[in-house]
Design a protein that fits this description.
Helix content is about 55%, strand content about 10%. A hairpin with a 2-residue loop joins strand 2 and strand 3. It is mostly helical. The strands form two sheets. It has a three-stranded antiparallel β-sheet with strand order 1-3-2, with helices on one face. Strands 4-5 form a two-stranded antiparallel sheet.
């Protein structure tokens, strides 16, 4: 079952976690034609292999994300059109009221922002800025470890990311 457009508009446009690299690392495209359409929109497309077959992906964070809204919404990939996070499904089924779902989004975004703030302090040169959040954190912690600079801030970053990851898995990715 697909969430009604009004629910999607109310919840998804306030969230954006599936597009900003917090929930997912990439979006698989339906094929070469869709990859070409994304490139026409000036979006970076990566080509790869998915179990022995050619595959195309949009790396996240998505270049089309404007705040928490899609800048190419009418032309977004099929995967984006059909993706529904657990929070949206719960709101659609009535298991969660919209205000409860929006509160969960606010908490997740606040936690994500706390992780980003710690990253800003620890990744001074910003080398990881274009990576998905979990990868940014891993890369930053690895660099600090290799440089012998693991300290309280790095430990806080690791803890905050573990906590955020558990929340995102539980509330947004679910089963």
């Amino acid at each position: 079952m697909s969430a009604p457009d009004s629910l999607t508009a109310a919840l998804c446009t306030e969230c954006g976690l599936c597009c900003d690299g917090s929930l997912l690392a990439e979006v698989e495209l339906s094929g070469e034609v869709e990859a070409g359409r994304m490139e026409t929109l000036d979006l970076e497309v990566e080509e790869g292999d998915d179990n022995g077959r050619d595959a195309w992906f949009l790396p996240l964070p998505c270049e089309a994300l404007c705040g928490s809204k899609c800048g190419v919404y009418e032309h977004r990939p099929q995967t984006c059109r059909t993706f529904e996070c657990r929070l949206l499904k719960d709101a659609d089924s009535g298991a969660l009221q919209l205000d409860e779902a929006l509160a969960a989004v606010a908490v997740a975004r606040s936690e994500r922002d706390a992780v980003l703030e710690l990253l800003g302090d620890l990744d001074a040169d910003g080398d990881t800025a274009g990576l998905p959040l979990a990868e940014r954190v891993s890369e930053t912690l690895l660099r600090l470890e290799e440089a012998g600079k693991r300290g309280r801030k790095a430990d806080r970053l690791r803890g905050r990311m573990e906590s955020l990851g558990a929340m995102l898995t539980d509330r947004f990715l679910g089963e």
